[in-house]
């Protein structure tokens, strides 16, 4: 399952950060997931409990922040949010928008831990 490898990757990053900072028990992990990343959040949450076992992230809550799809309109020069499923045109003037600004994120944002 794709989400298991994603969860493993995030847990490895979080655990490495925890170990580097002398943190033994992480209580909360916040990640940012773009609407176009293709991640199934339910599957990711399911995988989370399994891949965190025996790591500093065991028992940590997983908080998923959705990152909307945004593009820059080449005509107006401003950043617009696209409805999903996105069509890569400016929602206001209809200009094609090749520049994706956000929406593909899949990254660790922050950790919380017990002192
Ligand atoms: Zn526009």
Descriptive notes:
The structure is a single chain. The protein has 115 residues and is an alpha+beta fold. It has a single domain, classed as hypothetical protein PF0899 fold, CATH 3.30.2320.80. The chain contains 2 helices and 6 strands, in the order H-E-H-E-E-E-E-E. It has a 3-stranded mixed beta sheet with strand order 2-1-6, covered by helices on one side. Strands 4-3-5 form a 3-stranded antiparallel beta sheet, with no helix packed on it. Strand 1, helix 2 and strand 2 form a beta-alpha-beta unit. Helix 1 packs across helix 2. The protein is elongated, with a radius of gyration of 17 Å. Zinc ion binds next to loops.
CATH architectural designation: 2-Layer Sandwich
Cα distance, first to last residue? 34 Å
**Multimeric state:** single chain
Question: How would you characterize the largest beta sheet?
Answer: 3 strands, mixed
How many domains is the backbone divided into?
A: 1
Main CATH class: Alpha Beta
Structural class: alpha+beta
Number of strands: 6
Which ions, cofactors or small ligands are bound in this entry? zinc ion
Q: What fraction, in percent, of the residue positions are helical?
A: 25-40%
Q: Could you list the spans in which at least 5 consecutive residues all have pLDDT below 50?
A: none
Order of helices and strands: HEHEEEEE
Strand order of the largest sheet: 2-1-6
Average pLDDT reading: 93
Per the CATH scheme, the topology name is hypothetical protein PF0899 fold
DSSP summary: helix tally: 2
Radius of gyration: 17 Å
